[in-house]
Records
---
Amino acid sequence: MKPLKSAEIETDAPPRRAGKKERTRQEIYRTAMRLFGEHGYDGVTIEDICGGAGIAKATFFLHFASKAALIHAFNDEITAAFSEKLATQDGTAEEQLYFLAAAFEEQWRNNAEVMRKMLSEFMDQPAAHLVTSQLNESVIDLVAAILRRGQARGEFRPSFTPEIGAAAIVATWSALTAWWSAHPEADTSAFNREFLDIALNGFKVKTVAKT
């Protein structure tokens, strides 16, 4: 199998110095993704990941509840890769939302086989719905920041709460991702474009006031 791709993007900002705990978490994640690329998701055990990362099994469970929980780190990595880039872009908030949706879709498709199995296993866990918001927490924060910038620039109306808008957008993205997991042939890029158009422009026909 081909190596899995990480969410890397060029940026002028210096890399942040991670603490020991975060470095260990990243090493576990990157080791797992490398092994998944070499042996497939089902062909890698938690013991394999621990051996590759040079850690004890107890250390793995300090950072991740299960092998499927590595999906948290996947989303966090993509979010971190694009957050500073988006903060310095001159594009509109709408353009940034389309860019972010496309970026996530590209990363998921680059690692499609593994991500489908990881997502399926994650959602099959007992009470998975209770941790779904945690899974998307970093993504919601990033989308909320984009919406907030859009409000500050006068692109969006100021009367909505960015966090609520972000939660609604990310919840729909998650639903589209789940649909793609079961229907890999689906054109989710078209779905994302249509959804963002609805989210930003609404369902109502715009009427011109008569003078």
---
Amino acid sequence: MHKEIVIMLTLAVIRPPLAWAQSLSSTSMQNSSSINLKKLIKKADSGSTQSQLQLGFAYQFGKGVDKNIYQALRWYSKAANSGDPSAQTNLGYLYETGPEAIKDLAEAAKWYTRAAVYGNPPGQFNLGLLYLRGQGVQKSTEDALHWIQRAVDADYPGALAALGYLYSIGEGVPKDLNKAFKLTQKAATKNDSSGQALLGTFYAEGLGVSADAAEAVKWYRKAAEAGNAAAQYGLGVMYEKGRGVTRDAQEALRQYRLAGEGGSVEAQAVLGEIYERGEGVNVDYREAIAWYRRAADQGSTQSASRLGELLFRGEGIERNLPEAAKLWTWAAERGNSEAQFNLAELYMTDCVVQRDLAKAYSLFTLAGKTIDVSKQLSQLPSRMRQDEMGNVH
């Protein structure tokens, strides 16, 4: 199944970039591994917002000091409260992506908004993404497009890639693959890894351009080398299929693992399948379970369904029928046909959940959209009548 889902990675390439990449007026701080901490703190304490911003950056990324997210938050806050839009964007980024003790999407939206109003393109872009996802703000495609377009007008690469993506799927704008390709190509040539990953998919699938596997591999590789998980996943698919490169199952597995560790839910789901089925590796249920669980935690219904199957059978893990039923219920409610089928069988057999043939019939009907359930649906009416007669007597 995973061999046919390259296009799914377009859903994974829209990510807010690391704020430091656009928040300092000079690149010297980004490349420096040492700072005069005493001098910088003195200037920051005297009110220099640029010094406060640099200290926030230094503590966030461990440039010349030990990483300390709380110190980064402290110094970004000082500069942000003094009205520095770059610090406001960085502060919003920490609230969006920081640890649970810090994470606050509403607070992130507040600071992105301040930066966006002041004309900071990264802040505009990140605010647009929050509106697109409905995180920290009420979901609004109209507001998302407004702020993303503002960042596009400033030629911000991440926004170019995001708008290209929206045109590729027709979300909030008319579907236009040619326009999507041009925007994404522009982002890619500006070394935006999200744009490069998306451009790789356009070439791989022939979207807005003639399909060209070698060109797809070229762009996937550029983004993968920059650490883009979506591109690593795409490159893994190309190696697994032998498209644009010599087929290499081990290199595919390596790219999938890089992508999975980087947060690609698609790669995590694929890794679960690879280890469960022993595709090019020894069957390893523990590995399969670990990857399925990571993917399920990110919303993969297929991985939740497979994890439920392993829990139900007790393969590689202690048998746990209630947990299996819980996973199948979650996945079934979100439209996964395998989970709907398995859950229907539970309701039909009075296993774990209370016997409910009407519920089973409904679930089999839903699963029947993609799975052959003719046998189950033909048997259920007579069993339901038998139950009704038994209840009467």
---
Amino acid sequence: MKQKNRIQWLITFCTIVAFLAGAPFSTWAISDAYKDNIYNTGLLKPRDSKLKVKAGQQAPDFTLPAIGGEKITLSQYRGKKNVMLTFIPAAWTPVCSDQWPGYNIVEDLFAAHDTIILGLSVDSLPTLFSWTNQMGRLWFPVLSDFWPHGQVAKRYGILRSDGMAERAIFIIDKGGVIRYIDVHNINERPPLEGIVRELEKLP
């Protein structure tokens, strides 16, 4: 199967799975017990922050601890990989627990566009460690923006007044330039199709 056809097949597959799963309030998690631990937040204010960055400018650099024990700096990928930052509001909540595992299905898609995902949350490392263990293996690093609380989310302008981050996507090219921003309705999972379209635009 040619690479382009493979990518299109993956997109179609994920769209069908998401539809059948009844998104946004479903989970892709492996553990049967996992679903009983999800806290339903109900509907939240779709957006509650003021963006501080824009497409075309250098992405603010940061260093954060990852649940694997290492520290990751955004600029370490400069000249090597495109980066997709995916901020989620909170562990153990429905849409967040659906969104990140969904990227497991399309790992090859991100590889085809030479892109690494960095998952960011304002939750603590122990919380993220426990949550992602129950969720099942994620192929991308998960970073804690817990302390100073939400400092990276605040620099990007997506820290909400309740201390959570927005559900947001930032696609950054190998030069460190922001190419795409989606501060999404916090109650919904960002559509994969839109992400793929933006990845295809990268040089």
